[in-house]
Amino acid sequence: MPIIKPCADLRNNYNEISKICHETKNPVFITKNGYNDLVILSNESYEKIIQTKEKEIEKLIEKKFDEKYTDFEKFKLDIIKKINQGLKDIEKGNYTEFKNLCQEMEAKYDFD
Asked: Is residue 112 scored above 70 in pLDDT?
C-alpha cells in the first residue's frame, strides 16, 4: 500500500516521514494540491535502487556484447580495424576537432 502524505506534512512532520521511510524501506509520496509532487526515499533505499539499475545495465551491456562478439579475438580484431581506420582518417584530414564538434553539437541540439 503506497504511503501518501500532503506537502504540509513534509514541513510539519519531517521526522515522522523520515522514520516511515527508514522503517518501511518504502517511498513516501508527497502530494501538492491533491496531485503527486514528490517521492521521498531513505538514502539506503535510494542507493539500493541505483545499485540494482547499475547491475541491470551491466547485464544488458554484457548481453549485447556477447551477442555481437561471441569470440574475444574477433572483438580485438574489430577494435584494431576501427583504430586503424581512425588513424587513416586523421592522416587524410578527415576529422573534426573536438572544440568544433562541441560547437556543432551545441548548435544542433540547442544547448545553453
From this structure: no
